[in-house]
């Protein structure tokens, strides 16, 4: 850390998350308040049509008034663009030495953060949570999610990036330099953006580490078994084309 800047930036992409964003924010804030390092929280609302932004604002104002938590950063997309776009915006805004993004439903508990952070001291630039390592602790997925994940992982290894067992776990951390570099080059805004991040990072010479984490299935995902799968497979081809000069 230097000049009082935060060590960790936590980015939370959110789209119509009024039913769970409050619980997730309180859990993240409570966890971070117990750590020895400074941190910041950046919520990026992707054009929600519910009360997501109002809830985030209320929690920040209330927490600041009672001196329980620091006020976070709320960024709002004018319209729904995609999770990848929201995370890229958050990455460019982040000022922490390490930039972490996590799903709004906390499918991976925020307490798993330190499992990722310790690897940066060993020279890694990108550390990603994985549901497919031997030490991963994963609640059984719905059958269709398992099939989708298996087919997509095969396609990823064939078309874009080899050696990563789980590109889609929504729990990834980057050195700030790597985060900004990846976000600047990112072109995919849908669910395949994770693959693009790793493809850019690997082609750019950043060291990547995959770590087993806890993961629980949470209802309410906007992932469509058919439409999302087809668009993600299409985007794998686009990733190779967009970054063919790297």
SSE topology:
Elements: E1 8-14, H1 21-33, E2 39-45, H2 52-65, E3 73-76, H3 83-93, E4 98-102, H4 113-117, E5 126-130, E6 137-138, H5 143-159, E7 171-175, H6 176-185, H7 193-203, E8 208-212, E9 214-215, H8 227-242
Parallel strand pairs: 1-2, 1-4, 2-3, 5-8, 6-9
Antiparallel strand pairs: 4-7, 5-7
GO molecular function: dolichyl-phosphate beta-glucosyltransferase activity
Protein name: dolichyl-phosphate beta-glucosyltransferase
Pathway: Protein modification; protein glycosylation
Molecular structure report:
There is one protein chain. With 246 residues, the protein is α/β, with parallel strands linked by helices. The protein has a single domain, classed as Alpha-Beta Complex (Spore Coat Polysaccharide Biosynthesis Protein SpsA, Chain A), CATH 3.90.550. The protein is built from 8 helices and 9 strands. A 7-stranded mixed beta sheet has the order 3-2-1-4-7-5-8, with helices on both faces. Strands 6-9 form a two-stranded parallel sheet. Helix 1 links the parallel strand 1 and strand 2. Helix 3 (83-93) crosses helix 6 and helix 6 (176-185) packs across helix 7 (193-203). The protein is globular. The protein starts with 7 loop residues before the first strand and ends with a helix. The model has no long low-confidence stretch (mean pLDDT 90).
